[in-house]
């Protein structure tokens, strides 16, 4: 199955991204196939928005080739105990517990 190349076909995806933009969100589906298609559609929607922004904005604009959703990660579908399949969209870095440098700190 190929995905539509018209950005208007993805209004549901952009609404979901808008909901997830700050803290993340998830959507449930009855089957893996439905969840997987939705995750593919989310990524296609974002890619089409990048192309649209390259067309709409000049090259020196901060919005050229970017979207408000670039910092979001679309996770692979996961099943829960009730058999529902979930697609998670989370801000990048949301699950980081700590960050440590690999370079030893220099003594002052």
Could you please describe the fold and organization of this structure?
The chain has one domain. The mean pLDDT is 92. Strands 1, 2, 3 and 4 form a four-stranded antiparallel β-sheet that branches. It has 108 residues and is an alpha+beta fold. 17% of the residues are buried. The protein has helices spanning 11-20, 32-56, and strands at 25-29, 72-74, 78-79, 85-91.
Number of strands: 4
**Shape field:** flat
**Helix/strand order:** HEHEEE
Count structural domains: 1
* Uncertain parts: none
Number of helices: 2
List the helices and strands and how they pair.
Layout: H1 11-20, E1 25-29, H2 32-56, E2 72-74, E3 78-79, E4 85-91
Antiparallel strand pairs: 1-4, 2-4, 3-4
Structural features:
single chain; 108 residues; four-stranded antiparallel sheet
Question: In short, what is this structure?
Answer:
It contains 2 helices and 4 strands. The protein has helices at 11-20, 32-56; strands spanning 25-29, 72-74, 78-79, 85-91. Strand 3 and strand 4 form a beta hairpin.
